[in-house]
Write a structure and sequence with these properties.
It is a single chain. This protein is about 0% helix and about 65% strand. Strands 1-2-3-4-5-6-7-10-11-12-13-14-15-16 form a 14-stranded antiparallel sheet. The protein has a two-stranded antiparallel sheet with strand order 8-9. The longest helix has 5 residues.
Amino acid sequence: RQDFIHKKSGGIDLNKRYHNYGYFITNILKLLDNKLILSQSIRHDSYSSFKDKTTWKLGGKFLIKDAYISANWGTAYNVPTPDQLYNTYWGNPNLAPENVLQWDISLGYKNFSITYFKSHIKNLIDYNFSTSKYSNFTGKSKIEGIEAKYSYYLNKLNTYLYLSYTYLDTKSPDGKELPRRPEHQIGFDLIWYPDENVNIGFSGVYVGNRKDIDGTQTGYYTVINAFSNMKISEKISTFLKINNITDKYYQTVNGYATEGRSVYAGVDILF
């Protein structure tokens, strides 16, 4: 059982809720000396405020020494939040849930993997500037792209490296780009482990072309963070992190500020 509860939103006493009961079963088959792995899942959800829905997923992975090929195919069902439904300003009580059909295929070799994915979304939920409320896109929206990942541990330097790249191609039912989704995004993590109790690192992300709902450009920026963690004893550890160390000005949503350079430090104590 899941309970969705929203008490306040935008200073308004919302006090709305709904719930659902979910039942699911998953099966995994290992064949050919565990070189071929097949998975099957099915789930049924019964909502108090929406129609019942059954979703499913089929997956497979074939291992070839240090390489593999895998694929997944399935459906999803995303219901609107109480805020999207009932907020006095932007809510729309007539919102319908999203129905999703998605699939992906991946190739991997040692520490590298690349995935092609595609989703078709019926009744995509998004904010509508013409009505100043949330609404459903009538028809099917498309999200497809490529994601590449690479990770490596340099034993001599006790350093972990992680790189990722994502390309997105999105289309609304009328053929326009979906808002707030970057076309290109690059991420990285670089973590040094001087000993088993200490780690020091950097993480960052580059966001390429990305437009907001009103067409304003909110992309083309890089944010870099730094962090350090130290375990003093079994029950005491400390942390230090610096977010946005270059003090880059950027917005993920047009009109809403994000934090500049920020420093956080603390101690975690277990009792």
